[in-house]
Amino acid sequence: MKKTIGILGGISLASTIQYYKKITDLYYEQYNDYYYPEIRINSLDFQHFTDLENEHRTEEYIDYIAKGIHALEKSGAEFVIMGANSPHSVFNEVVNKINVPMISIVESTAKRATELKLDKVLLTGIKYTMQSNFYQEVFKKYNIDVITPNETHQDEINSIIFDELVINIVSDQTRKRMLDIIQSYDVEGVILGCTELPLLIAQNICPIPVLDTLSLHAKAALDFSLNKE
């Protein structure tokens, strides 16, 4: 019996759409039928969510996320995923406020990095994520070093995400610039630590291993739904 998936989305719209597509595509690739797991999506107010992050209103942030997940619980979700990297900065705090299992995007990514035998990786994402330490804390358990871009590159990546990707603007010029930034660091792999970044960067165009957090998270969710975790 498949478990009903709950996606806390809207953070942003662009990646929420990709989560839905990725989970259903992965299912069809494996089974070649249409018995998809049921999915509930609760789309948050992206600007309010981002304001809470940027203003470091942590308690309100946690409560807003938990409230969104409670709505998913009431709708029948049997477990949840947060469709973004940044709210995983308060993953443990949120877990303590909800009543269903929640799958971590960071753990899913760390497990893949371990499979690839990576020792040092670059974390890209919004500034909130790059300037937090939740990725470093989880990856340390796997003996993997996580470094972040310099401040200038952080500003640039943050701008790419908020000014382009979250509103589905994807350009070859920006893609080239992002690849140039990645290749300027001495690392063995790169974490696409924002669920919009896979719209821009894929393994077939990057010379080092790409940790596509959205795809890894979606696969973990599907596996859990199908009792394959």
Q: Which short descriptors sum up this protein?
A:
Rossmann fold; 2 domains; 229 residues; 4-stranded parallel sheet; alpha/beta; 10 helices; single chain; 13% strand
Question: Quick recap of the structure?
Answer:
By secondary structure, this protein is of the alpha/beta class.
Write up this protein.
The chain is of the alpha/beta class and 229 residues long. The chain has two domains: 5-104 and 216-225, Rossmann fold (3-Layer(aba) Sandwich); 106-213, 3-Layer(aba) Sandwich (Rossmann fold). It has helices spanning 13-31, 46-54, 58-75, 91-95, 105-115, 127-130, 134-140, 151-163, 172-183, 213-225; strands at 5-9, 39-43, 79-82, 120-124, 145-147, 189-192, 210-212. The strands form two sheets. It has a four-stranded parallel beta sheet with strand order 5-4-6-7. Helix 1 (13-31) links the parallel strand 1 and strand 2. The radius of gyration is 17 Å and the shape is globular. It starts with a strand and ends with a helix. Belongs to the aspartate/glutamate racemases family.
**What percentage of the residues does DSSP assign to strands (E)?**
5-15%
CATH architectural name of the largest domain: 3-Layer(aba) Sandwich
Multimer state: single chain
Whole-number average pLDDT?
97
Q: Report the sheet with the most strands, covering strand number, pairing sense and barrel closure.
A: 4 strands, parallel
What's the helix count?
A: 10
Number of structurally distinct domains: 2
Helix content: 40-55%
Low-confidence stretches: none
Main-sheet strand order equals: 5-4-6-7
Number of strands: 7
Q: Any idea of the CATH class of the largest domain? A: Alpha Beta
CATH names the topology of the largest domain as: Rossmann fold
| Shape, principal axes of CA atoms | globular
SSE order, one letter for each helix or strand: EHEHHEHHEHHEHHEEH
Which class of secondary structure composition applies to the elements? Answer: alpha/beta
Radius of gyration: 17 Å
